[in-house]
Amino acid sequence: MNFQPTTKQALVIWNLLITGDEPAMSKVKPELKPKERQPLIDAGLIELVKRGHSSHIVLTDKAWDWAIRSEEHTSELQ
């Protein structure tokens, strides 16, 4: 996967990884606008899952893989 999330997108991914939350789109922090969210969906890092009347952001296994590769890359730079 060659997708490189923006700083804001990466912050959302790390937040969800650490907290384990699967928030409604209206509750995700920092807020992701549709044009910021769509690349994450297209890259397979998140899915939108309908629960009741709202859609929730759910991380995929690819998000975990991205986090591992991101951490490995960061470690190499130190």
Helix content: 40-55%
Strand content: 15-25%
CA-CA gap between termini: 23 Å
Pick out the low-confidence regions.
none
Query: Mean pLDDT, nearest integer?
Result: 90
Measured on Cα atoms, how large is the radius of gyration?
13 Å
**Largest sheet entry:** 2 strands, antiparallel
Question: How would you classify the quaternary structure?
Answer: single chain
Please trace the helix and strand order, writing H or E for each element.
Answer: HHEEH
Contiguous helical run count:
3
Please identify the structural class as seen in this structure: alpha+beta
Adjacency order of strands in the biggest sheet: 1-2
Question: What's the number of extended β-strand segments?
Answer: 2
**Shape, principal axes of CA atoms:** globular
Features:
78 residues, 15% strand, alpha+beta, single chain, globular, two-stranded antiparallel ribbon
Give the structure's gist in a few sentences.
This protein has 78 residues and is an alpha+beta fold.
Question: Overview of this structure, please?
Answer:
The chain is α+β, with helices and mostly antiparallel strands and 78 residues long. The protein has three helices and two strands; from the N terminus they run ααββα. The protein has a two-stranded antiparallel ribbon with strand order 1-2. The longest helix has 17 residues, at 61-77. The two termini are 23 Å apart.
